[in-house]
Amino acid sequence: MEISLADIARTIGGKLIGNGNKIIRGASCFENADKDHIILAGSAKYLNRLDETKAGAVIVPSNFDTSSISRDMVAVENPMADFSKLLEIFYPGPKVEQYISPNAVIGDNFISGNNISISHFVSIGSNVSMGDRVRIHSGVVIEDNVTIGSDVEIHSNVSIYARSQIGSRVIIHSGTVIGSDGFGFAPDKEKYQKIPHTGIVCIEDDVEIGALNAIDRATFGETRIKRGVKTDNFVHIAHNVVVGEDTLLVAQVGISGSTTLGNHVIVAGQAGISGHLNIGSNAIVGPRAGIAKDVPDNEIVSGAPEMPHKLWLRVQNIIPKLPELKKKISELEKRLKKVEEK
Amino acid sequence: MEISLADIARTIGGKLIGNGNKIIRGASCFENADKDHIILAGSAKYLNRLDETKAGAVIVPSNFDTSSISRDMVAVENPMADFSKLLEIFYPGPKVEQYISPNAVIGDNFISGNNISISHFVSIGSNVSMGDRVRIHSGVVIEDNVTIGSDVEIHSNVSIYARSQIGSRVIIHSGTVIGSDGFGFAPDKEKYQKIPHTGIVCIEDDVEIGALNAIDRATFGETRIKRGVKTDNFVHIAHNVVVGEDTLLVAQVGISGSTTLGNHVIVAGQAGISGHLNIGSNAIVGPRAGIAKDVPDNEIVSGAPEMPHKLWLRVQNIIPKLPELKKKISELEKRLKKVEEK
Amino acid sequence: MEISLADIARTIGGKLIGNGNKIIRGASCFENADKDHIILAGSAKYLNRLDETKAGAVIVPSNFDTSSISRDMVAVENPMADFSKLLEIFYPGPKVEQYISPNAVIGDNFISGNNISISHFVSIGSNVSMGDRVRIHSGVVIEDNVTIGSDVEIHSNVSIYARSQIGSRVIIHSGTVIGSDGFGFAPDKEKYQKIPHTGIVCIEDDVEIGALNAIDRATFGETRIKRGVKTDNFVHIAHNVVVGEDTLLVAQVGISGSTTLGNHVIVAGQAGISGHLNIGSNAIVGPRAGIAKDVPDNEIVSGAPEMPHKLWLRVQNIIPKLPELKKKISELEKRLKKVEEK
């Protein structure tokens, strides 16, 4: 792949600074770039030492003062996102060509679009449909009545239970389980009676699910992951949860049953959210937070129990000083006693 | 499926109120019920607005005053459990019919009961036995010398290591791993020497294991999951753990090696329990608790470090007020100084 | 397998005490040993009641006073590690013999050593190489351009993405995912642009990875798990993380992107480490700790926020006493007011 720097600037809508005829053959990182590579210098950490990289060209923020820099550059509004687009151009995923492994098993009434790729030991149930350019890696199990959109990639050893619905441009990483029964049992004297789960899981368009996620089907109705959601590894999403658009769920997050997250929420790593709560749009939940109450729109909460993030920062500072505070209280008591006895 | 309301009342042992001849054709939820559906109204949330559902019949608690309600109802002692039984009647799992995929591989000395179903790309080792009506989904791996009871369902891509023992009426959800080596290494100068794990995992009758659980085999002897235990997703059970009967382990719980849980324990989500502990019967461990000491029978503990739940509730209230308390202490110091200097 | 006690002493470099001609036929545990078994009594718990075991011989620490004990024993420097070596002798893993299942699929340009075993429904991509005595269990997926050393065991249903590198004497337990894309998305107005991950995962020699781990590939460059690392179940290792030699990661630990761990670190269960941090060599991170700052070499830290372990022990003691402290402060206020009003 060879692209001139001028073409790169045009493609990502940036401002060319320097030699537009320079040919770029790859995108890489600051430390390891070759002379025909383009790199990202999105923050001061890299911008302050641009002379240290061998890269042939640099993506810089449009508000960066380039007047004293003698390098070939492209200035953009949104360096990380624009550089990511370049990465996709230089390192495109494999083109999906029509291929169905003779070692795959496909059930009755299979409906599929064009250029689908189904690898070895994939098991597809009855009445499954999928769109164009769907790529199913080895060892994936898709049970009956599942629907899948177009331009979907499902990595190896994913398990998708019956009747799950998956949109277009969805990526699901290896080992993930979609549509398992929610954790619902009714006490029946000393034992527990299983509550059958007749609902489904819906995953909308443009969602990326990390490795080894578990997304449970609803008791009734649906568990819904809305457009643009991205999840890291080991995310647990219980029955009847709704995750709003463009929400990020970081690794090892757990969301209990029937909780609803708004749009553009961020839940940081290892946080847990109780059931039947509403987490407002644009809310941010701090790492390892334990959320037991509703969170309003636009709030940043941290801690367990959760509290406003700014308060939590102050609390965090005090906790290691508790032994000191305890000592102060004892001293105050002694001194006060003395004064009282006067 | 069509059942008269009188038959429903008889089947679940409830009291019929209203038209016993009404034909019911499904069970669903309050909001989406059709006229020939029966629903559950187990709590005030629904009982207070029974006029809002279209459902043809309602399961209500036997202590609910139905005198002023003009609806067809069945009053029962245990609404959730009894409604769950109805769900199983209206939406039974697929009947397990004898089917062994030509794409499964089964080792020597396979012993099996009647009406077993083994789906595609299932790998079964040597000397494996299973009872009647066992259903193995695609991609499951069962290694040598595993025994499985009757009426068991093992979902797709489950991995069961050699010599594991699984009882009857067990459900195991996708991606779960049973019988992997425990995390045991002996320091040997700077390096670690692996401690071989010669033990096994035993799962007793009526257990349901969620998706993506990991249950390690014992160093010697066995890791044992007793009758009626139910686990949510992502539960980690280390080597030589014993989980007592009818115990619930909620999502992302971790139990360290050689710990014993009594009967009818509940461990809430994301809690962690250290090794070599005893958690008493009927104990409840709060969400995200970190348990480092034994818990007596019938105790409710929360927090990390764990403490009685009622104490923890008070502690939880104070933590966000720590900045305030710190300020108060400073003020007290200043005021006391003034008094002292008088 | 029959070995004389004298040979056992010689093999593990211990001091024979008692009858060297005694024939030992197995190794087991204190409670269940037979007369021809050897057991480990590494701590006072067992050493104080050696008369209670039926075992024929006992491994004891070399500093244990055996003068009054009339038992056949072998005294060693490092009882657990030496006993583990005996376990490996008495219960060796199956000898790996050349076997490639007719139900496996292997891509072009496969290069392999001698005596490899590839079980059923294993999918191996193109340009994969592996050394001698590699054992791949059923349902494993290995994508293109993966390299694997010698004496490696990969358990069932593991997923290994393209270009991953795996050393020699590595064990990977079931369900683990190696090489999935890191969680990297660049905000692009309201949506997120995926950051392509062109890097790889390198796992060095003598590493053991537990069940259901997720180790993400680097954005650029590599995520590296160095020689001798051992991980428990459910460990999350994000993109560009480096884990130093002989480091232990206990169950449900999460390590965020670009963090580096030194050699011989221990991270206890359910702990989380933020991104872009340095955890020094020989550091110990306590269970459930939340690490947000660098940890120097040799430090022991606990808590969230992390603090020196000894401080944390004192803080842990005070937290349940917060209601008491709060009450004391109120009382002090009242008493001080009285004094002030005098």
Topology:
The structure is a homotrimer of 342-residue chains.
Chain A (H helix, E strand, L loop, with lengths): L2 E2 H8 L2 E3 L5 E2 L1 E2 L9 E4 L3 H4 L9 E5 L11 E4 L2 H12 L8 E2 L4 E2 L4 E2 L4 E2 L4 E2 L4 E2 L4 E2 L4 E2 L4 E2 L4 E2 L4 E2 L4 E2 L4 E2 L4 E4 L4 E4 L2 E4 L5 E4 L4 E2 L4 E3 L5 E4 L4 E2 L4 E2 L4 E2 L4 E2 L4 E2 L4 E2 L4 E2 L4 E2 L4 E2 L4 E2 L4 E2 L8 E3 L4 E2 H10 L3 H20 L1
Parallel strand pairs in A: 4-5, 5-6, 6-7, 8-11, 9-12, 10-13, 11-14, 12-15, 13-16, 14-17, 15-18, 16-19, 17-20, 18-21, 19-24, 20-25, 21-26, 24-27, 26-29, 27-30, 28-31, 29-32, 30-33, 31-34, 32-35, 33-36, 34-37, 35-38, 37-39
Antiparallel strand pairs in A: 1-3, 2-7, 22-23, 39-40
Can you walk through the features of this model?
The structure is a homotrimer of 342-residue chains. By secondary structure, chain A is an alpha/beta fold. Helices cover 16% and strands 29% of the residues of chain A. The first copy, chain A, has 5 helices and 40 strands. In chain A, the strands form 7 sheets. In chain A, strands 9-12-15-18-21-26-29-32-35-38 form a 10-stranded parallel β-sheet, with no helix packed on it. A 9-stranded parallel β-sheet of chain A has the order 10-13-16-19-24-27-30-33-36, with no helix packed on it. In chain A, a hairpin with a 4-residue loop joins strand 39 and strand 40 (307-308). Chain A is flat, with a radius of gyration of 26 Å. Chains in contact: A-B, A-C, B-C. Chains A, B, C: Residues 23-88 form the UDP-3-O-[3-hydroxymyristoyl] glucosamine N-acyltransferase non-repeat region domain. Chains A, B, C: Pathway: Bacterial outer membrane biogenesis; LPS lipid A biosynthesis.
